[in-house]
Amino acid sequence: MKRVYAFSIGTHLKQTISLPRDAVILSIHPKDDTAVLYALVSPEASFVQHTLYAFTTGAGLVEESVADLRYLDTVSIHNGSYVVHYFLKV
Which range of residues forms the domain containing residue 61? Predict the structure, then answer.
């Protein structure tokens, strides 16, 4: 049976996150001045590593071609003073 799980993620430019192999990313929301990624998963699935990028508004996209990145969501944190756009390397 699939379930929705929450995964804490930061606002670092580039980070590696572990998600169940069959994870379907649903959304990203702010929580306590950071962000949480919500995904539909099978709890028994093995975990795989993913590269996640977090760009602030106006920042250049570094290291990867935009064609290699899939947009996930935009989150406003720190009372709206910090807007982060999340991308997943595909």
Answer: 3-89
- Say how many domains are in the chain: 1
Alpha carbon 1 to its chain centroid, in Å, reads 23
In Å, the largest CA–CA distance within the chain is: 41
Residues in the chain: 90
56-86 b/e (C-beta count within 10 Å ≥ 16 → b): eeeeeeeeeeeeebeebbebebeeeeeebbb
- Asked if 49 and 16 count as a contact pair (C-beta separation under 8 A), the reply is yes
pTM of the full structure:
0.89
Of 52, 55, 27, nearest to 39 by C-alpha is: 27
Q: Is 80 left (phi over 0), alpha (psi -120 to 50) or beta?
A: left
pLDDT (tens digit, 9 = 90+) per residue, 29-81?
999 889 999 999 999 999 999 999 999 988 877 665 777 899 999 999 988 88
